[in-house]
């Protein structure tokens, strides 16, 4: 888990009217309140999300058809209505597969849904066992999840219009696709033993890098670029120190060497080293506006009575914690 500690230090000259001093203190309080009240927001894979106590579930999930999602919601297992503006949402827990089979199996649906902030652990080791397995499923958003100890993180067949972003894969394989179209896969961390993103059939159409450019910070500097994925066993050079490698990641079909796709914006470090911000980051479903509120609070401080002289210094420290 990655989170941010923000420290705001304010210095000002005394001797100004009490009203000016009150305004300053009020604005500082607002900034600190914004940070404090949303202290349960953490920087997860570069996208601000709300953390939870992450209850551990031991039951697998099988949803068939659009009506299956409706029944799943009626049972109190998710929120949302299945529309593009209000997708079904399954989030904020840990699901243990007991080292057997697939954890979430989805079939024959066209409604919009999101699976996010979930830790998938201990899936089966047989072929096609996965954290998430999809057959004939459209309109999925799989975001900010962690896949540990599985055969496949995500396995999909005949499934279209899928967004896979901000996830961490740690296991045997990452993502496997068969006859899937318009699959967007970017800003993920692949720490896998064998292949990262693999299409068993070269009829799939995937995109392993973002179509739009993102504003992001890396190594204490700000940059703008399209973003790919991080591949643990593929070292890459980064001569300009922008976090984007100079070499592309090219994938080939296992049977005839047909080149299917390439990642031209490979990340040189896991995505926890990057922070996304700006309009493009907000376009990723689920991005929080509270980080923007914090910036507005600081801007308000700077605009309070130009006669009052003060300086604001911010420091953001990244603290890495091992997953338990």
Topology:
Elements: E1 2-12, H1 18-37, E2 41-44, E3 47-50, E4 56-57, E5 61-64, H2 65-74, E6 88-96, E7 104-109, E8 113-121, E9 130-143, E10 146-148, E11 152-157, E12 160-165, E13 168-171, E14 173-178, E15 181-186, E16 189-192, E17 197-199, E18 205-207, E19 214-218, E20 221-225, E21 230-231, E22 249-252, E23 259-263, E24 274-277, H3 279-283, H4 290-303, E25 310-320
Helix pairs in contact: 1-4
What can you see in these coordinates?
By secondary structure, the protein is an alpha/beta fold. It has two domains: 2-43 and 288-320, no CATH class; 54-269. It contains four helices and 25 strands. It has helices at residues 18-37, 65-74, 279-283, 290-303, and strands at residues 2-12, 41-44, 47-50, 56-57, 61-64, 88-96, 104-109, 113-121, 130-143, 146-148, 152-157, 160-165, 168-171, 173-178, 181-186, 189-192, 197-199, 205-207, 214-218, 221-225, 230-231, 249-252, 259-263, 274-277, 310-320. Helix 1 (18-37) runs antiparallel to helix 4 (290-303). The protein starts with a strand and ends with a strand. Mean pLDDT is 75; it is low at 1-16, 26-53 and 287-324. The chain crosses the membrane at residues 21-39. Keywords: Membrane, Transmembrane, Transmembrane helix. Residues 88-233 form the Periplasmic copper-binding protein NosD beta helix domain.
Would you kindly provide a brief summary of this structure?
This protein has helices at residues 18-37, 65-74, 279-283, 290-303; strands at 2-12, 41-44, 47-50, 56-57, 61-64, 88-96, 104-109, 113-121, 130-143, 146-148, 152-157, 160-165, 168-171, 173-178, 181-186, 189-192, 197-199, 205-207, 214-218, 221-225, 230-231, 249-252, 259-263, 274-277, 310-320.
